[in-house]
Amino acid sequence: MSEAILYHGEPNGPSLSVLAALEESGLDIECRAIDLAAGERHGLPGVTDSMAMDYAVEGEGPVLVIDGEAMSEAVFIAQYFDEAAGGCGLQPADPYARWQMLMWCRQATERLSPAAAYLGLHASTAGDAPLDTMASEDLRERWTDWQQRRFDEAKLADSRAKVAQFAQRIEDQLDDGREWLMGSFSIADLETFAWIRSMRHLEAEAFSGKGALDAWMGRVESRPSVQAALARSTTGEPERAFAPGPEINRWG
Amino acid sequence: MGEITLYHWEPNANSGKPMLALEEKGVAYASHYINMLQFDQHQPEYLAVNPQGTIPAMTHGDLVLTESTAIMEYVDEAFDGPALMPADPQDRWRVRWWMKFMDQWLGPSFSMIGWCTFIGPSLASKTEEEREAMLARIPLPERRVAWRKAMFAEFSEAELAESRRRISKGVELLEEELGKRPFVASNAYSLADINIFNSTYMLPVGNADICSPELTPNIWRWLREVYQRPAVQRTWAKGTGRFTDRFTAVMRDFA
Ligand SMILES: N[C@@H](CCC(=O)N[C@@H](CS)C(=O)NCC(=O)O)C(=O)O
Question: What fold does the segment set A95-223 form as a domain?
Answer without folding.
Answer: Glutathione S-transferase Yfyf (Class Pi); Chain A, domain 2 (1.20.1050)
